[in-house]
Design goal:
It is a single chain. By secondary structure, the protein is of the alpha/beta class. The chain has three domains: 15-31 and 131-344, Mur-like, catalytic domain (UDP-N-acetylmuramoyl-L-alanine:D-glutamate ligase, 3-Layer(aba) Sandwich); 40-115, Udp-n-acetylmuramoylalanyl-d-glutamate--2,6- Diaminopimelate Ligase, Chain: A, domain 1 (3-Layer(aba) Sandwich), CATH 3.40.1390.10; 354-482, Protein-Tyrosine Phosphatase, Chain A (Alpha-Beta Complex). The protein is built from 18 helices and 22 strands. It has helices at residues 15-29, 40-47, 88-93, 117-130, 145-156, 174-179, 200-208, 223-226, 229-236, 238-242, 258-263, 316-331, 336-344, 373-386, 404-417, 431-437, 447-457, 475-482, and strands at residues 50-52, 61-62, 73-75, 78-79, 82-83, 98-101, 111-113, 136-140, 162-164, 188-192, 212-215, 248-252, 268-272, 281-290, 293-302, 305-311, 354-357, 363-367, 389-394, 422-426, 441-444, 462-467. α2 (40-47) packs across α4, α5 (145-156) crosses α12 and α17 packs parallel to α18. The longest helix is centred in the middle third of the chain and has 16 residues, at 316-331. It starts with 14 loop residues before the first helix and ends in a 9-residue tail after the last helix.
């Protein structure tokens, strides 16, 4: 079975856009890469600490003694329920060469003594990053930033060694840890940056000093911290505000806050979008399902020319993500051929619109990693295009604050209006979704009950979208549904 989206558009390849891209590439290509040593004395100076014990060379940095390897430097972070300073002896026993800590460790175990280990980690990462001058791309946005980061990394890896954020380690700890993985072999770096309150992206961009910044979009995410949709957009725009005048902002012109973001940056601007006025756009878009899952084909239209692209992802929103990734990668020096090769080998990030086969013959779309109103609607659009009997397993959408009630009511209405036959909901807030969905909607108080009821109705013509915030643990529902052999229940 297959389904098709047809999008037709025309593009004028503007010489001004080509000039911006070429200028950005020339600027980045003039920067040389350093070759720093990784020694305790160096990181002591970088973080403003005091070295107690012998100077040693370390291989990398780790904040978790459970995964600590010999030769690493342990950073003793503190949190509400843990204190890394109590694990210094364990770190020494596991072969760590030393630690950044707020107290001294065992005898003969070097410690970089600091007042605050987190601040020290961040300072060290910022100084370490300053030793390197390869193109560094900062990636932000309410939705799609992890997928887009993987796209950019896949494209740039066709050009040479590329450092990319592992998973979604995109916060005030994850970004410094990623920056400390930089080494002279890297030709590019792609750093994902997440935020749930104003000022956070400005801080992360200060650590990373990106030459290129891309914001995928602004959506109703973390509204408890941002206060409003415009507040979220301004917070995401902090990445653009951090770019220097010789940097490049990769701007989604389809987003309603594109004008706001233009005003927030002094950097050069390269645009992407599915409309008719973007520097990087797409036409002839169609998506089908084959033996390997979703396959979307489209023609990339850019200032450098046109390129046929195959993408193993579903949804027009992922075409938009691919356009932004192409714009960022080409600005960093990639070619159109690199874009085609990199996107072709891109695969879905686990838990993000991942098409899974089930023993029953049903299709399970695993989008269980996270959810907010805009990403939910995009996922329902994909489900709608599949045909067959369409089921939605919906978990709560978190961190919406005063917007939660209306968002969950709208979720039920949107699902009903876009061809969903059955809604299976879990989580207190989704009672509202069941209410607005009407007939065919059911609510349960735990995931096991949801999985059992959906399992009784699985058949070869059923398409099940599983979507909710991470706290719902809906990956358990996905695993259960994959194992159902046929209609009739969980056995």
């Amino acid at each position: 079975m297959s389904y098709w989206w047809l999008v037709r558009a025309t593009r004028t390849i503007r010489s001004s856009a080509l000039s911006v891209v070429r200028s950005a590439i020339e600027t980045l290509s003039t920067r040389a890469t350093g070759s720093p040593m990784r020694q305790l004395a160096d990181i002591t100076q970088d973080c403003g600490g005091r070295l107690i014990g012998a100077d040693r060379v370390f291989s990398s940095v780790n904040t978790d003694t459970r995964t600590l390897a010999a030769g690493q430097l342990f950073v003793a972070l503190r949190g509400p329920r843990f204190d890394g300073n109590t694990y210094l002896a364990e770190a020494a026993a596991k072969g760590a060469v030393g630690a950044i800590a707020e107290r001294e460790g065992p005898a003969d175990f070097p410690v970089v003594l600091v007042d605050d280990a987190l601040v020290a980690l961040q300072r060290a990462a910022q100084r370490w990053r300053a030793r390197f001058s390869m193109p560094l791309i900062g990636m932000a946005g309410s939705n799609g930033k992890t997928t887009s980061k993987e796209m950019v990394a896949s494209i740039l890896s066709c050009c040479g060694e590329t450092l990319a954020t592992a998973g979604n380690l995109n916060n005030h700890i994850g970004v410094p840890l990623t920056l400390l993985r930089l080494d002279p072999s890297h030709r590019h770096a792609v750093i994902e940056m997440g935020a749930n309150h104003p000022g956070e992206l400005a801080q992360l961009a200060g650590f990373a000093a990106p030459a290129i910044g891309i914001v995928t979009n602004a959506g109703a995410e973390h509204l408890e911290g941002f206060g409003s949709l415009e507040g979220a957009a301004r917070a995401e725009g902090e990445l653009f505000a951090a770019l220097r005048q010789d940097g490049t902002a990769i701007l989604n012109v389809d987003d309603s806050f594109a004008g706001l973001w233009r005003d927030m940056t002094v950097a050069r601007i390269v645009t992407f979008g599915l409309g008719s006025k973007a520097d990087f756009g797409a036409c002839d878009i169609h998506t089908e399902v084959d033996a390997d899952g979703f396959l979307t084909r489209f023609t990339l239209v850019s200032p450098l020319g046109e390129q046929k692209v195959s993408l193993h992802l579903a949804g027009k929103h992922n075409v938009l993500n691919a356009l932004g990734a192409a714009a960022a990668a080409i600005t960093a020096g990639a070619t159109l051929d690199d874009v085609a090769k990199g996107l072709a080998r891109m695969r879905p990030v686990k838990g993000r619109l991942q098409l899974c086969g089930a023993r029953s013959g049903a299709w399970i779309i695993d989008d269980s990693y996270n959810a907010n109103p805009s990403s939910l609607q995009a996922a329902i659009d994909v489900l709608e295009a599949l045909g067959g009997r369409r089921f939605l397993v919906l978990g709560e959408m978190g961190e919406l604050g005063n917007f939660s009630r209306e968002a969950h009511l709208e979720a039920g209405r949107y699902a009903r209006a876009h061809g969903v036959e059955r809604l299976f909901a879990v989580g207190e807030a989704t009672k509202l979704s069941v209410e607005s969905f009407g007939e065919g909607g059911v609510w349960h108080d735990d995931t096991a009950a949801v999985a059992e009821e959906v399992g009784r109705e699985l058949a070869a013509d059923v398409r099940v979208l599983v979507k909710g915030s991470r706290s719902n643990r809906l990956e358990r529902v996905v695993a259960a549904l994959e194992s159902v052999p046929s209609a009739g229940g969980m056995y």
